[in-house]
Amino acid sequence: MSYDAVVVGAGPNGLAAAIELQRNGCSTLLVEAAETVGGAARTEEVTLPGFLHDVGSAVHPLGIGSPFFSSLPLESFGVEWVHPGAPLAHPLLGENAAILERDIEQTAASLGDDGAAWIRRFGPFVEHWDTFITHLLRSPLSPPRSPLLMARLAPLAIRSTPGIANAFRHNQARALLAGNAAHAGTPLTHTLTGAVGATLIVAAHAVGWPFPRGGAGTLTGALAGYFTSIGGVIETGHAVRSLAALPTARATLLALTHGQVANLEDSGLSASFRRRLGRWRYGPGAFKVDWALDGPIPWSDPAVARAGTVHVGGTLEDIVSSEAAPAAGKVSERPFVLLAQPSLFDHSRAPEGKHTAWAYCHVPNGWNGDATDAIEAQIERFAPGFRSRVLSRSSWNTRRLERWDGNLVGGDVNGGALTLNQMVGPARWGLPGYRTPRRDLYLCSASTPPGGGVHGMAGYHGARSALKHTFGLTSV
Ligand SMILES: Cc1cc2nc3c(=O)[nH]c(=O)nc-3n(C[C@H](O)[C@H](O)[C@H](O)COP(=O)(O)OP(=O)(O)OC[C@H]3O[C@@H](n4cnc5c(N)ncnc54)[C@H](O)[C@@H]3O)c2cc1C
Q: How far apart are CA 416 and CA 281, in angstroms?
């Protein structure tokens, strides 16, 4: 059997690439190592029967904000976005929790005399959200959108998070910024972390931080359903080690991270290009825990139960210290924990009266220890009695995560370290976006722009590149 195109890896980017090719008239085969599609956006019963856990991604501001996903009829394939009462809560010891509301004015009102600075920093991007997100998720080869608006992001991108936080006087605003910036997975004293924090804050105000009802697997299941409905073919249980094992095709797209591509057999890529791919640096690993709970998490501040996502880690200073640890090869005793409590808002996730919780913290890449106690102790500080609600838990160290999805190299959830060097600097030069020196081979995983997250845009841009350069579609 031969196809116009073969895509390897059925995570959000592989699915997006396969859809874009198929809907432009290319017969497309999507090949996946696991028995199910979805990559790091899959929902599984990993604790007790009836408890549905998102092993990888759980909260999807970039999913609802993705220009590519928005172009697909995903509602007809089962996607329903669930918006919690507030996108995010950030509990603080001895003080009111900071709450990031959907509404920027409401958030500002809760931040006291930091409110005006909050609106000044983030308001312009919220107002021009469509331009902002289209710019951030665009192919690096396409011209910048609204240079004036993006120039306002530059001061946030080039300064450290504590530097940006100097605009705020109180713990609430400072902690909200630090917790969002910590999604970058690099020490908060580094550049770019502030831009990551700003993007997530702006997304919360503009489109929210929803979950798909039923879990992340509903979203990737809908992508797969749409792909097969337009004639695409999916083959699961096929771990590709050599490109020679694939059916012939005019174009092959690899939704695999750069290091994995470097190790493929028969790729036909030159030794120097493979060396360049092999030098790609991965970010910290994640240590992940899923819990089945006997009841909701007993937060000391009840306002925290209004939020779908909770940043558990205390003040900006605490988070700066815990996020510095993985880069120094250590695990913080009090790690910054990203937590989601979806069953409070989506009753399909757990049996009646029961709940699920999802959390991870950053650890050194490839770390093989157990951070379950450290994560639970951190949650207990802000929710005394949490452990007594645990019916069952499933812990995922970096090796277990990588066995589950080979793209999570050393437990890195983003496909590569988020550094200036890898985003726009020398490490990126010579890695020409989605193309490789072979005219029929393309890259389109989270290692390619615009990077990690469930948005499918790397897959979409990879497919557009193949449509233009291999299939000669002039309208691309
Ligand atoms: C714990 C965790 C939490 C996260 N939280 C969020 C979140 O809340 N929100 C968010 O937006 N993002 C989140 N992410 C990140 C997000 O899930 C990823 O950035 C995204 O899934 C990347 O998509 P991808 O298609 O490039 O790769 P993946 O989703 O990793 O998919 C890669 C696929 O390729 C397959 N594969 C690998 N090797 C081979 C091979 N040799 N042959 C065939 N198939 C192969 C894998 O099995 C997998 O299915 C999280 C990730 C993790 C792990």
A: 6
473 CB-contact burial (10 Å; exposed 0-12 / middle 13-18 / buried 19+): middle
CA of 54 to the centre of ligand 1 (A): 12
DSSP-derived secondary structure for 126-150: HHTHHHHHHHHTS-TTSPPS-HHHH
Residue 426: which residues within 8 A CB-CB, separation 6 or more? none
Q: What's the pLDDT tens digit per position in 19-62? A: 999 999 999 999 999 999 999 999 999 999 999 999 999 999 99
> What is the DSSP secondary-structure string of 246-296?
SPPEEEEEE-S-HHHHHH-BT----HHHHHHHHTPPP--EEEEEEEEESS-
With a 6 Å cutoff on the Cβ, whether 204 touches ligand 1 is: no
Residue 31 three-state SS: strand
Alpha helix segments (H runs only) across 353-408? 372-382, 398-404
What does the domain layout of the chain look like in residue ranges? 3-44+214-281+414-469, 81-211+283-404
Read off the pLDDT of residues 310-340 as tens digits, 9 standing for 90 and up. 999 999 999 999 999 999 999 999 999 999 9
Closest-lying ligand 1 atom to the alpha carbon of residue 63: 11
Length of the chain: 476
For residue 417, how far is its CA from the centre of ligand 1 (angstroms)? 15
**Is the CB of 31 inside a 6 Å radius of any atom of ligand 1?**
yes
- What's the CATH number for 3-44+214-281+414-469? 3.50.50.60
Give me ligand 1 centre to Cα 61, in Å: 16
33 lines ligand 1 (CB under 6 A): yes
Q: CATH code for 81-211+283-404?
A: 3.90.660
* Beta strand 86-92 pairing with 53-54: unpaired
Q: Is 27 exposed, middle or buried (0-12, 13-18, 19+ CB in 10 A)?
A: middle
Distance 38 CA to ligand 1 centre (A): 8
Instruction: Give me ligand 1 centre to Cα 11, in Å.
Output: 5
**Is the pTM of the predicted complex or chain greater than 0.90?**
yes
- Predicted confidence (pLDDT) at residue 290 exceeds the cutoff of 90: yes
Nearest residue to 393 (alpha-carbon basis) of 323, 466, 290: 290
Question: ω before 450 within 30° of 0 (cis)?
Answer: yes
Q: For residue 467, give the amino acid letter.
A: L
Q: Token pair of 451, please?
A: 């990077």
Residue of the nearest CA to atom 47 in ligand 1?
Answer: 405
Span 127-147, mean pLDDT? 87
Q: In 294-375, where do the E strands start and end?
A: 307-312, 337-340, 355-363
Contact 284, 363 (CB under 8 A): yes
